[in-house]
UniProtKB/TrEMBL annotation:
This is Large ribosomal subunit protein bL32. It comes from Bifidobacterium santillanense. The lineage of its organism: Bacteria, Bacillati, Actinomycetota, Actinomycetes, Bifidobacteriales. PANTHER family: 50S RIBOSOMAL PROTEIN L32, LARGE RIBOSOMAL SUBUNIT PROTEIN BL32. GO terms for cellular component: ribosome. InterPro entries: Ribosomal_bL32 (IPR002677), Ribosomal_bL32_bact (IPR044957), Ribosomal_zn-bd (IPR011332). The keyword Ribonucleoprotein applies.
Length: 64
């Protein structure tokens, strides 16, 4: 197995990690209540999807 000959420099490590960024999660606004929801998933606020209520709304653990 190939082994690195030299220790990766701080600058190389940092410039590589500088390109690693978090991106915001894609959301769609619920046509029933307008709350942001994940696409293709029943709305966490009112539980509706494609014009039907599939289940009771859940309280998101991060929501206040
Ligand atoms: Zn909704």
């Amino acid at each position: 197995m190939a082994l690195p000959k030299y220790k990766t420099s701080r600058a190389n490590t940092h410039s590589r990690r500088a390109n690693w960024k978090a991106t915001a999660t894609a959301t769609v606004s619920c046509p029933n209540c307008g709350a942001p929801a994940l696409p293709h998933v029943a709305c966490p606020s009112c539980g509706s999807f494609r014009g039907r209520i599939y289940r009771e709304a859940i309280r998101h653990p991060h929501a206040k």
